[in-house]
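User: My collaborator sent over this chain with a note saying "see what the structure looks like." That's all I know about it. Can you take a look?
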Amino acid sequence: MSDDWTRHADLVDALRRAVFESPGETDPGLRRAAGSGDPLPEPWTGYAETVRDHSYCVTDGDIAALKAAGRTEEEIFEITVAVATGAALHRLDAGLRAVRGGAGT
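Assistant: Without extra context I'll predict from the sequence alone. Here is the result:
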């Protein structure tokens, strides 16, 4: 890839570290699982699936249910960002494989 991609790859790596490795209210392992689509403990399972696959369907009721389950707004924010970032990076990786002519797209 070009030097431009190398610069962008560094930025993407920095984004990955910030979302999935940095300290937060939620455990980095939980955020990594959320980002990769791995199984999550309740009450995150259905919420993560909705954010990943149908983000336009997230409702105030979904957030209220997470709060009722004892989750804070900060935890909800962090998991939401992790799921959305993971989905975006998955699509980016698939697009780059397609541009490079790689298999598995």
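A starting point for your reply to your collaborator: Residues 6 and 53 are 29 Å apart (CA to CA).
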